[in-house]
Structures are given as C-alpha cells and as structure tokens.
Design a protein that fits this description.
The complex is a heterodimer.
Chain A lengths: L8 H5 L12 H19 L25 H13 L24 H7 L12 H8 L4 H9 L12 H13 L3 H14 L2 H9 L2 H14 L2 H8 L6 H23 L5 H5 L11 H11 L11 H7 L4 H14 L3 H7 L1 E3 L5 E3 L5 H10 L4 H8 L5 H10 L3 H11 L2 H8 L7 H11 L8
Antiparallel strand pairs in A: 1-2
Chain B lengths: L12 H16 L5 E5 L1 H10 L2 H6 L2 E6 L11 E6 L3 H16 L5 E6 L5 H9 L6 E5 L5 E4 L2 E3 L4 H8 L6 H15 L4 E5 L1 H9 L12 E6 L5 H4 L5 H9 L1 E2 L2 E4 L1 H4 L5 E4 L10 H18 L4 H35 L2 H16 L3 H14 L3 H14 L7 H4 L2 H7 L11 H11 L3 H13 L5 H8 L28 H12 L6 H6 L4 E5 L9 E7 L2 E2 L13 E6 L2 E2 L1 H9 L4
Parallel strand pairs in B: 1-2, 1-3, 3-4, 4-5, 7-16, 8-9, 9-14, 14-16, 15-17
Antiparallel strand pairs in B: 6-7, 8-13, 10-11, 11-12
Helix pairs in contact in B: 4-5, 7-8, 14-15, 15-16, 16-24, 19-20
Classes of the chains: A mainly alpha, B alpha/beta.
Organism (chain A): Electrophorus electricus
Keywords (chain A): Cytoplasmic vesicle, Endosome
Subcellular location (chain A): Cytoplasmic vesicle; Early endosome; Late endosome
C-alpha cells in the first residue's frame, strides 16, 4: 500500500494556505468540513482494536488520565479510599520495563565526577569535625555551605564576624545560603541589632522578608516594617487590617439595606476584602455626606488611609456621577480662593472630569460647564465639538477670530437654533477682525 | 525552524535515564514497602521520567498527592518527594508530630528535588522532628520536553527571583548548566545579558576533554525582555497553551473537544505535532484518497495488510487529527474572530508605537467589559512597557472606574522614578494584588527602553509587501509578521558579531550586565548553541531561532510560560 503520490491531481490543486485569522468565515466551515471528513472515515472503519494504541494517544480511564501514569494512580488510590475500602493497589498488566543502561555513563562515574554528595546524609562523628571548625573563615564556610558540606556557624560569635559571614553569603549570590545565615543571625542576635544591620543590606533584607512570609511570621514582618525606612509591604499589612476592621463594621449595618438608596441601587457584593479604592467608592456612593466621625463616611476613609486629593476626587466624582448628583459633583471642585471667591479647581484635568461625566450620561448642560474649564485650548475645542457644546465652540472660534471654521461649524448646528443665530450674529459683527 | 546543514541534536534522553537511576537509588535507601507522596508540581515531570510500574518495582505501594491535610496512609514507611517549600515541610512535620502524639511509629523519608534548602532543615529542627526523618536530594534538574527544549520545571523561579529578590534558585540553575556542560560540553563560548546570567557565568567549572555536542551558550534573563511573553500568541501551539494550558509538554483536552464525555491528555512535541493548516489539509486530503482507494480495487491481501499496518498508524493519526480539529473549534469559539483581530491590532499598534490613543481606548473598553482581568492587566503592562512608563494618556486610562473593575491601581507619573511612584501607590492601595504588582514593576528597578530598542534592533518589520507566513523571511512570523521577539533578535545579533562589540548603546538600553567569555580560546564549534532563558519561553513563540545561522538551537529554560502564567505568578498569594 503506497502513500499518495505527489503527482496526483487533486492533491496539487487543493488550496493549502497557512492558518490565519485574517481568513473570512470560511475558516469555520472549512473546519467543519474537515471534521466531517475525518469523522466520516471513522464510520467506515471497524472500531474494535482500541487496545493497540501507542503512547501518542494514550489510553484513558474514566477520569481522562492516561492509564499507568502517576496522576492516574494517585486518583485511583484516592477514590479507593473514598469508596470505604482499602483494596490492594490496582494492578497494571504491562511487562516490567527495566531502564536500559546503554548510556555509557554509569552511576558511579557520575557520582565521582561531581563535587556534590549524592549519598544520603551520613552523620560524621563529632570528634572528627571539631578540629577543623575553628579554621574556617567566612569564605570557607560559605563555600562549604554551597556545596552541601558539613559546616558550623556557631564559631561566628562576634558581631563583626557575623556580618562578614552575611556579606560573604550575599556576594556568593546563593539565596539558600543567605537565608541559612539569616536564620542563624536571627537566633543569635537581638532584634534591634539584627534589624539595624538588615536595614543597610538590601539583598539580605529581601531574603529575610521572603523567609518571614513563607514562615507566616506576620508579627515579625510588621515589626520589621515599622522601622524608619519605607517598605510598602508594611503599610499594606497595617492598612489591610485596619481596612478590614472598618469593612466589617460597615458590612454589618449595610447588610440590612434599610436606607432608601439600598433599595434603589441594591448592592452587588459585600464590601469585605475589597480594595481601599473600591471601599471609598462604595462609601461615596452609599454614605456620601456623612460626618467624618462615622466609619462609613468618605471623609473618614479619606483621612484614615491618607488618600490623596486627586484620588479622592476621582473616586467621589465617579460615584456621584453614577447617581447623577450633579450638584455634588459641582461642589467637589469648588474652592475659595484667597479673596473669598469661589473658584473651580481640579487636581485632575477637567478633560478627565468631562470624560467621566460623559460616561455616566451627564446631560450637555452639565458637561459644558466643565468643558469650559479645560485649560488646553485644542483639547477644549475638540471635546466641545465631540460633546456638542456648541456655545463653547462658537466662543472659541470667535476668540481665535477664525471665520472659516465658524462657517463650517454653522453647517453642523441645527438650522434656526439658538446657536445658528448666534453664529449669524457673530459673522455679521463688523467689529471683529477676522483673520480669514 | 532551523537550517540546512545543521548538525543533529544531542540525545537528551540520557538526562531522563540519569534522573531515573538516581531516583531509584534513593528509593532503595528506604527498603521495604512504602507509600509515596508527590508534590503536585512534580507529578507531570515524574511521569516523564519514571512511570508507576517502575516505582512499583521499587516497593512503592500507594501513590498520593501532597495535600496539606492529614494523611490516611496506613503504611509503616512514608516517603515524600517534594520541592523544597517551607509550607510543605511544615506539613510533613505536622504529620510526624501527630503520629508521635498517638504513639504511632513510622519511618519517614523526604526527598527534596532538585535540592534541599537550609530553611527547610531549620523547620524540621524547630518542629522537633529533625531526628525522625531522613532527607535526601534528588538532583533532577533537566527535563527534556522535546528534542530541543529542556526545562527545569521551576515556575517559581520567576516570582522568587524577580519579585521577591530571593536568589535561592540561582545556584540551581547554575548546577543545571554545569550538568549540561559536563555531559554535552565543554562550552567554547558563553555570552549573556542580565544580572542572573552574569552570576551564572561565574559558575562554570569542570571541563571534559571530548567532542562537545554543545558549543556556544547564551544566557539571558527574563527581565531583559518582558514584552515578548506579554504578546498574544498566534501560533497553534501558543493558542493551545493560552486556552488549554500545556503542562510539561502535554495538554488535556476536555469533553467539548473530544466530543465524547471523556477528557484526553495528549503529548505535544515534534513527534506528535499535527499542525493546523497545511499539514491538516494535507492529511485530510490524503485520508480522502485512502478512503476512496479502500473502497475500490483492493484485494483481500492488500486489505489485510492495510488494516494491519497502515490503518493502525492512520487511526492514531486520525484520532490526533480529530482531536486537534476539535481543539481548533474550541479555540475559534473562544477567540471570536472579531475580538481577536481587534486585540491583535491593538497589540501590534502598541509594539509599533502607533495610534496609542486608540489603543488606550480599546484597553479601557476591555476593562469596562470585564472580559478577563488577566487580559486587561496584560494589556496594561504591555502599554506601560512599550510606552516606557510615560503617562501618555495612561492617567486617563487608569481612572477609578477602570481600576475598580480590575481591583488594582498602578499610577505612573512621567519622569518620576519608580520608588517615588511606589510610595504614592502604597498609600493609595492596599489590596495585596496591587501591592504585588507595583512591587514587580519596582523590582525591575529600571525604566523600559522598548521604543528605542525596537528602532535600533528593527524589531518591527517594514510593512510594505505582503508578509507571507508560509515563507517567512525573518523571525516575525511568530507574531504574524508584526514583531520580532527582542530576546531572539539579541541572540541572533550577538552570535553574528561574536560578542557585544559595537553594540554598546543597545546594552546600555538593556541596563548592562552583558558579557562574553571564550573558554580555552576555541573557535566557535560546529555551530550548536544553547539558549538559556532565565525563566521562561512562551510556548513556541519565543523559541524562534534566528533563521540565518547554520546551527541548531537548544533551549534550556527554567520553565515554560505565557502571559497568563506570568501575571498570575505575580498576583498569586503564594503560601
């Protein structure tokens, strides 16, 4: 039986092209055709020699794992236990396969060649070792540790020696050894001194922090972080607990959902374990205007978690905009300047404010107030056009003395509308010195 | 993927045999019947080394997965095959202690792989069980996943090293390299870039006087090129990985793919690959012909022969084929054409630095639609890296609403250093997720220079003529012609120049730590090379080799990854 010969006609004439998603919908249908073709062949064949599969498509059990694999037998064991009995381990009827040693590398040659000790741990008699310990310098010790040889750290008693040891470990770039030395220092130094030295050794510090995390020694971690060098982890941990505390309190009351607003906008999820920003948003949404004294008020959250003005305004803006409280939005930006006049000011660009408002379907009336506050002229113009704040566009073109653009824009506004008339007025105004 | 006249690959099955031999030796150190507990991460690799039969032959009775709960085993001897994690060791200590508490006597053996850490021993000591267990190291470093890919299967390398700053695995990687050097070397030239790579370069030790199978070595740290793994994969294997998760060279297809009610595990490597497109069509057509031929004009003898031999082989291929077709359908359903095209378009624009505002809008919508947090995050990272962290509209994108959706905040100020950003962010956010992510960015401790690098190295091929994916002229075919992976391009260039000379501005943009060492003054040998990625190659995608060199490439990596795994490892709260 021969395979298809290349000179066959339909072989060559078929369209073979690389699979890309740029193809049109034919791809799907082509796949379906392929599938049909393939499965139709199956119908013709006799399907009774399932047992002769090779390794490529492995025989599977009900759980989908290939029979004879580790995961399969783990599942089998687990299920046999669950089914109450401890039957013998399921038998697998395959011929035993001994590993072939045709490699030319015998075990022993490999063991000898390597500097590592392969054999299981042996306990050397103490007497044999004692004589050598005192001779081992930090360099020697670290070298021995890296190779898994016997070592002793106890001889490093003076602080100076300990630090030399630590620095040596760090320069060896071996995390395993660094951590081992740190464990020793932790045991043999007071916390204050140990931490002090860590503060000035960044790599060692990172290893220690990682070790503490793995050992789940949160308390020590927090203590370490209270030190006067900023580590965001510390802040995170502290804040995390405080936040959680607050959330529990808020959750307890809000869960009942008695206030009007909860009925109108039912909560989608509990506030527990939400990030700060989410919590702030929640508070701005459901508890806006509450006094700073209450845990649930935005003001309280803001001060407790030292939220920046920018972030606060962003969040509050989003929440109030969602509720369409344009008045609240407005007061977010009101500040009194030194003369006592109210002025609008925003730590985030007003273009952003506009964007957020627009996303919350603010009416043009509201939008235009903020568009007009945008500093950048170009941006202001483009956003005004985008959101159809006609008055602003008109005024800007007037200020730019750009008659052409004004005419063009007139085409965009509704005939006979207020804007239309306004443009007419301007165009007719003789006093304006148009530039074009 | 590689060239005419390239020499054959060395036989890496040797590595498997060595590993198996050593494991057996260790198991025999605890004679008699024993139950074996295996770390979940080790189950797949172990499967490729020694199957259940082998284990049973060495008196392993029952197999259990390591789960942090009380054991139900009744055996008198317990053996634990684990990665050196403190959490696992603590659990073992608990097992021993609870046995002691009820007066039960057993023998316990811990096999750490690839090595034991001192911190683990300390835990045993502190828990008072040090004297009750024996512990060994199974130095299983290298798992061949394919003819030319070897993995250390240490996905934790990335997080531990780059995020936590813990160098525990550096020596491990060094030992792996040394083993390769010993078995297949000696290496005549070593090039590299990256902090980790530099450390490793110092490690190379013993030499063996023999004809080397592997001549040149190139070590490269993952953080030299973060952009590549963040890009969407469009190669078939990449897509399969993205959707189904390839684990240790094999993938599990669920019932929706197999069209039965069973799942199926399939090995994916050069021997079994069934490529979508050409190969498939060819096979399909060939099938048709076979079928037709079968129907007419075969005599009994021929039929018998056909059934016995051809059909068996065909059946297998047929099964594989239908599986892959099923997988394709699944992929296509999940990545609906419209969405995927837009996604790719956005990515390509980001890589090119083109139409950034549109990209930002797209990303924002993506976040709002809450399609997938990881995807959104991936795009944000890509944006941030390609735009060198500038706030070109990023502020706009990172509005509270979006962040609320994702649940994290990464704010960037133009021109500010990352440490300042960190402290600001630290005050704002307190979700562990966000904290970790900013940690990740800050631990890079450098600004990305992607845009400049891209220009200098010409990573974006000129669009002019149609890019023919079937006859690719450069490595960009991996990303459908849009982008040549940075790390691959680097390697190509350095190998061509035989060093870093003339490349100073590039190395500066990559933050230095480059080196090139020639051992024993040998000339570059028959052109075999080893690539070592400190941590990960995206499946198939990064394993793209410079087309122009007459040599074979072998990839040695700490683990195979993709964008999802990368980000998840940063976000996960590892115990």
């Amino acid at each position: 039986m021969t395979r298809a010969k290349p000179e066959d006609d339909d072989w060559n004439s078929s369209k073979i092209h690389a699979f890309t998603f740029d193809d049109d919908d034919d791809e799907f249908t082509k796949l379906k055709e392929s599938k049909r073709a393939v499965s139709s062949i199956l119908v013709d064949d006799d399907d009774d020699d399932d047992d002769d599969d090779d390794d490529d498509v492995e025989k599977v059990s009900w759980s989908g794992e290939p029979v004879g694999s580790i995961s399969w037998s783990v599942k089998e064991t687990a299920s046999s236990i669950r089914s109450g009995g401890e039957h013998g381990f399921p038998k697998i009827n395959t011929a035993p396969s001994l590993p072939k040693q045709g490699s030319g590398y015998s075990l022993s040659s490999l063991f000898k060649a390597s500097t590592r000790v392969y054999a299981p741990e042996l306990r050397k008699p103490k007497s044999e070792c004692k004589d050598y310990f005192s001779d081992w310098s930090p360099e020697e010790t670290v070298k021995r540790m890296r190779k898994g040889k016997v070592y002793s750290l106890e001889r490093f008693r003076s602080l100076q020696d300990k630090l030399l040891l630590l620095d040596e470990a760090v320069s060896a770039h071996d995390g395993n050894v660094i951590t081992a030395v740190l464990i020793y220092l932790k045991k043999s130094l007071s916390k204050e001194i140990f931490f002090q030295e860590l503060m000035v050794r960044e790599i060692a510090l990172r290893h220690y922090v990682h070790y503490l995390k793995e050992m789940e020694e949160q308390k020590t971690l927090v203590e370490l972080m209270k030190l006067p060098f900023s580590q965001d982890d510390a802040i995170h941990v502290q804040d995390h607990y405080t936040l959680l505390e607050r959330q529990i309190i808020i959750e307890a009351t809000d869960k009942k959902g008695e206030a009007e607003i909860f009925k109108k906008f039912p909560r989608k999820a509990s506030i527990l374990n939400m990030p700060i920003i989410t919590t702030l948003y929640y508070s701005c949404f459901y508890h806006y205007g509450e006094s700073e004294g209450t845990f649930s008020s935005p003001a309280n959250i803001r001060s407790t978690f030292r939220i920046s003005e920018k972030q606060y305004i962003l969040t509050a803006l989003g929440a109030r905009a969602k509720l369409k409280s344009w008045f609240d939005v407005d007061s977010l930006f009101n500040t009194k300047n030194w003369l006592g006049y109210t002025k609008k000011r925003s730590p985030i660009g007003f273009h952003r404010v506009v964007d957020i408002l627009q996303k919350n379907n603010a009416p043009v009336q509201v939008l235009k107030d903020y568009v007009s506050l945008i500093d950048d002229a170009e941006l202001k113009l483009s956003l005004a056009q985008k959101y159809k704040c006609h008055d602003i566009v008109i005024e800007m073109y007037r200020d730019l003395k750009d008659r052409q653009q004004l005419i063009v824009y007139q085409g965009k506004v509704e005939r006979g509308s207020h804007e239309d008339r306004k443009i007419d007025q301007l165009l007719g105004n003789m006093q304006i010195r148009w530039k074009n | 993927m590689c060239l005419r006249d390239a020499p054959g690959l060395p036989d890496f099955s040797l590595l498997k045999r060595l590993a198996r031999d050593q494991l057996i030796y260790l198991l025999e150190q605890l004679p008699g019947k024993k139950d074996l507990f295996i770390d979940a991460d080790l189950m797949s690799p172990l499967d490729r080394i020694a199957n259940v039969t082998t284990l049973k032959q060495h008196e392993v009775d029952k197999l259990y997965k390591v789960e942090l709960k009380p054991v139900v085993s009744v055996s008198d001897q317990l053996c634990f095959l684990i990665r050196p994690r403190i959490q696992t060791v603590k659990w073992i200590a608990d097992v021993v202690k609870s046995d002691k508490a009820v007066g039960r006597f057993r023998r316990y053996k811990i096999i750490f792989t690839p090595q034991k850490f001192y911190a683990c021993e300390t835990v045993l000591e502190e828990q008072g069980v040090y004297g009750d267990v024996t512990s060994d190291e199974w130095e299983f470093y290298l798992l061949p996943l394919d003819d030319d890919i070897i993995s250390l299967e240490l996905p934790e390398f990335f997080r531990d090293n780059f995020l936590e700053g813990d160098q525990r695995w550096v020596t491990t990687a060094g030992s792996a390299l040394r083993l390769l050097h010993f078995l297949f070397g000696p290496f005549s030239k070593v090039y590299g870039i990256g902090r980790c790579a530099k450390v490793k370069q110092v490690e190379d030790g013993e030499k063996k006087a023999q004809n080397p199978d592997i001549g040149n070595v190139f070590l490269i740290d993952r953080d030299v090129d973060f952009v590549t793994p963040l890009c969407s994969q469009v190669v078939y294997e990449g897509l399969v990985d993205d959707i189904f998760r390839i684990k240790c060279g094999s993938v599990e297809f669920g019932p929706d793919v197999t069209s039965t009610d069973k799942s199926l595990k399939v090995m994916l490597n050069s021997q079994d690959k069934v490529h979508v497109g050409e190969t498939q069509r060819k096979k399909e057509i060939w099938w048709e012909k076979q079928r037709k031929k079968k129907r007419c004009g075969m005599d009994i003898k021929q039929m018998k022969a056909f059934v016995a031999e051809e059909l068996k082989g065909l059946k297998q291929e047929h099964r594989l084929l239908s599986l892959h077709i099923g997988a394709c359908e699944s992929i296509m359903k999940k990545k609906t054409k419209q969405d995927f095209q837009e996604l790719l378009k956005t990515e390509h624009s980001l890589l090119e630095g083109f139409e950034i505002r549109e990209c930002i809008t797209y990303i924002e919508e993506h976040i709002n639609r809450q399609v997938s947090m990881i995807e959104s995050l991936r795009l944000l990272c890509l944006l941030s890296l390609t735009e060198n962290g500038e706030s070109y509209g990023i502020e706009h994108l990172l509005s509270f609403a979006n962040l609320r959706q994702i649940g994290l905040l990464v704010e960037q100020q133009p021109g500010e250093t990352l440490t300042v950003m960190e402290s600001k962010v630290g005050k704002l956010v307190n979700d562990k997720t966000a904290g970790k992510l900013t940690d990740a960015f800050s631990s890079l401790a450098k600004k990305s220079n992607f845009r400049a690098l891209s220009k200098r190295l010409m990573l974006i091929p000129k669009t002019g003529e149609e890019y023919d994916l079937r006859v690719p002229r450069d490595m960009a075919y991996i990303f459908s012609g849009a982008y040549i992976p940075l790390s691959c391009k680097l390697i190509e260039q350095v190998l061509e120049r035989d060093g870093w000379t003339g490349f100073e501005e590039v190395t500066r943009m990559l933050n230095g730590h480059e080196f090139a060492v020639t051992e024993r003054g040998e000339q570059a040998s028959e052109g075999r090379s080893v690539l070592m990625n400190e941590l990960l190659s995206s499946v198939n995608t990064n394993i793209t080799f410079p087309l122009a060199k007459g040599c074979k490439f072998i990839v040695l990596t700490t683990a195979i990854t993709n964008s999802s795994r990368l980000l998840e490892s940063l976000l996960d709260n590892q115990g």
